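chain below, 166 aa
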Amino acid sequence: MAKAKAKAGSRSKKSASRSAARRKPAARRRATAAAKQRRPHKFVKSHHREEDFKADGLRTYAHYRDLGVKDATHGMAVAHVIRFQGQCDPKLVSKDHLHEADFQMIYVLKGTITTEIKGEGVHTMHAGDCWLQPHSVVHKVLDYSEGCEVLEIVMPANFKTVELEK
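prediction:
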């Protein structure tokens, strides 16, 4: 009796693994189809030039250097270097906001930056540190050092920022 149950159990495991094997190609086909629908990225390079830092970004206290990723990826992602200007003024800087983005990663290139992320606390990040910010998490900059620069990569390139404090 025990042998019969063991054989039956063995057969159902084999059957389940065969079913899984049949499903994998369909998943792969869907992934391949999605990749084919996405337009191929273009090659892009961005050499450091001081004149490329512009005061035309989201924050008035920062200059932005666009790295050309938005056009090269057809809007899939944006990457820019953010250079914070002058000494931090908390009245101007420390305002709760969120970004409606699928992906947002910040890497500190120079200096330090202190942020508060709702549910995660206050974090001071130094050159070489990075963080991944969850979708629509409320956050604010509390402080930054003079000369602070960060690399920010966001997906999609056209994302909405919602200011929660004026």
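The mean pLDDT is 85. Helices lie at 2-37, 69-72, 90-93.
thats it, cya
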